[in-house]
Amino acid sequence: MISIIAAVDRNLGIGFQNKLLFWLPNDLKRFKALTTGNTIIMGRKTFESLPKGALPNRRNVVLSSNPATQCPGAEVFPTLEAALQSCQPEEQVYIIGGASVYKQAMPLADMLCLTEIDAEAPQVDAYFPAVESAIWHEKSRESHLVDEKHPCPYAFVDYIHK
């Protein structure tokens, strides 16, 4: 099972200068709950953006075309295909970014686990691919209002491949 997990703004923005656009504690909790104990696949820049390096209690897999790339605590593969071939059939795989990895993974994914943020980030330089309704069916939606820790409304939305 291959899932893509991301937080997107109204325009499908996902990042600026290799950082998340919004700080939403519940989004981070959901990310941890879904990915812990599973395999996460990411690009090198996403790995480098992690504040403490490899994420604990997960198999960390990094994509890099440079064979000399070193990512402590993670396995490095040259392509998404090679990384996926290293996974066992029963492994739950989460694609966690960035933009080019999401684009490559969209045709291969079974599920999208998105946090849809009802706001526009002021600066964006990385975007999530379009979620085509002909390909993806909304399975569930859990909406949340603004509160003291969350400056804008958001929804946890799961899509399944039709």
From TrEMBL:
Domain DHFR: residue ranges: 1-161
Family as reported in the entry's similarity comment: Belongs to the dihydrofolate reductase family.
Function: Key enzyme in folate metabolism. Catalyzes an essential reaction for de novo glycine and purine synthesis, and for DNA precursor synthesis.
Organism: Bacteroides cellulosilyticus CL02T12C19
Molecular function terms, GO-annotated: dihydrofolate reductase activity; NADP+ binding
Protein name (record): Dihydrofolate reductase
Keywords, alphabetical: NADP, One-carbon metabolism, Oxidoreductase
Protein's UniProt keywords contain Oxidoreductase: yes
Cleaved signal peptide residues: none
Catalyses which reaction(s): (6S)-5,6,7,8-tetrahydrofolate + NADP(+) = 7,8-dihydrofolate + NADPH + H(+)
Pathway: Cofactor biosynthesis; tetrahydrofolate biosynthesis; 5,6,7,8-tetrahydrofolate from 7,8-dihydrofolate: step 1/1
One GO CC annotation: cytosol
Biological process according to GO: dihydrofolate metabolic process; folic acid metabolic process; one-carbon metabolic process; tetrahydrofolate biosynthetic process
Pfam families membership: DHFR_1 (PF00186)
Entries under InterPro entries matching the protein: DHFR, DHFR-like_dom_sf, DHFR_dom
Stretches assigned to coiled coil: none
Enzyme Commission (EC) number: 1.5.1.3
